[in-house]
Amino acid sequence: MLKIVRLLVGVVLATLPYAASAGKVIHVPADQPTVQMGINASVNGDMVLVAPGTYFENINFEGKAIAVASELGSNKTIIDGGQIGTVVTFASGEGLASVLRGFTLQNGFPSSGASCGQGGGINITGASPAILENVIRNNSAIEGGGIFINGGSPVISGNVITNNNQSCGGGIGGAGIAIFSPGSAKILNNVISRNTLTSANGGGISLFSAGTPTVSGNVISQNTATGLFPCTQGGGVYVSSSVGTIANNLITANSAGCGGGIAVVELPNLGPLVINNTIANNPSPQGSGIYSDNFDAQVRFSNNIIVAASGQVAVFCGNGGSQQPILSFNNAFAPGGTAYGGNCAGQAGVNGNISADPLFNAPSSGDYHVKPGSPVIDAGSSKNAPGRDFDGLPRPIDGNRDGNAAFDMGAYEFAFRVKINIEPGVSPNTISLSQNPQIPVAILSSASFNASAVVDITSLKFGATGREASLASCVAEDVNGDGLPDLVCTFNTAQSSFKVGDKRGILIGATILVAPLAGIDSVVIVP
């Protein structure tokens, strides 16, 4: 589900978006025998580049604006904390030029005597580093088994955070990630799964007095929170005393006593925006998808799909503060159960909220895109809606092809997903803005999809956003040798809106039967 990029020296130097200007490269173990000794020998702007292997260390960036990266990615390069402390520490005011990329971090266990510490895999205290494309697994702490953030505005992106747990009772929770103290952390495009709490809230993520975090584009799945009375809250996500935005996430198969997917328990005048998420099949006796309680009048739920586990309540609101959250343009569906319950009963048919089967493609195999005719297509609101969906497609797309593009509910905009190949036969897909006047893009056929026959060529747009009218011509050609006629179209580079550093090309169009289609492929844009 998530590709961990394998980094070569040249690629690392070229693709560290948060790193300072490149200085020297310190190789581990060729130049320095350990990762920490490589950090000790570095100065701001350097890179510590680590060869494949397992390194039994507990490292500290010591405030340096450096990149610490693996040569060949997380499946080849492991830092093992040995159960004697946090694996990686940022506690000296590091900023986004302090980058950790491409490792597996495991067996972290911070403790001091009989006390358990925070952040088994990573502890970020008063710092704002970039944590990119790591696997953070099998770590333990009282809070933040995978990652603990106490102040600062780090970027946590492209990581797999899995099988972390709680070492002692209590704390603010967050077996995967715990965020405490004001800041603006960005939790983007991670897989957060199979993390376990035994006496705290927020199996996947806990946002506790967390300031204004952004949680977007994540798969949050199969996390568990248990052990509190009367109920542990937030199997996937727990929010308390925080603002921030939770958008475009896929939240499935998490479990807790209250709020299997998300639990929001707020103080007056605080509350997050929870928008365009798909929250499905999260078992909980009280609020399978969403549980909201206390002073939650500032909490906003909009454009979400919430599907309850069988026989349960999809959205449950308590009356702890005699208020209810703002619910608008949501689809809460509860097969054999109750769509809107507690203090939120009767919301179907009010403020754009509905209750109908969203018609997922194949939820049993993890495909939560919707089928044609889904009631969530073009049924959302534009207010505060994200400009892209979970897959990176632009919002809105005219899903029902009525001539009016409107936002969908849920994490995905509806469109028939097609496989495209930019610059067929070339890898990587490098496009020079000055040397390549046109860009070939193949729409690939399959046994059930004849691209050359069913694509409406006049509808095709391609470029950095998928909105660019850049089409030059199209021809049928089998570009991958499978015996099927693909559709190869040429687009004008000057009209594509690409700029140096863009990493994906987006194709938007329709079939001759007026069904929207979309495809994405990676690109490398150079001058």
Give a description of the structure.
The chain is mainly beta. Among the domains are: 279-357, no CATH class; 417-526, Immunoglobulin-like (Sandwich), CATH 2.60.40. It is 3% helix and 36% strand. Strands 1-2-5-8-13-17-21-25-29-32-35-38 form a twelve-stranded parallel β-sheet. It has an eleven-stranded parallel β-sheet with strand order 3-6-9-14-18-22-26-30-33-36-39, with no helix packed on it. The protein has an eleven-stranded parallel β-sheet with strand order 4-7-12-16-20-24-28-31-34-37-40. Helix 2 (35-40) links the parallel strand 1 and strand 2 (47-50). The radius of gyration is 24 Å and the shape is flat. Residues 1-16 have low confidence and may be disordered.
CATH architecture of the domain at 417-526: Sandwich
Low-confidence stretches: 1-16
Strand content: 35-45%
Strand order of the largest sheet: 1-2-5-8-13-17-21-25-29-32-35-38
Number of strands: 52
Largest sheet: 12 strands, parallel
| Count of discrete alpha- or pi-helical segments spanning 4 or more residues | 3
Q: Tell me, rounded to a whole number, the average pLDDT.
A: 93
Distance between the termini: 31 Å
Radius of gyration: 24 Å
Briefly note the CATH topology name of the domain at 417-526: Immunoglobulin-like
CATH top level class name of the domain at 417-526 = Mainly Beta
- Determine the structural class based on helices, strands and strand pairing: mainly beta
Spatial shape = flat
Kindly state the percentage of residues in helix.
under 10%
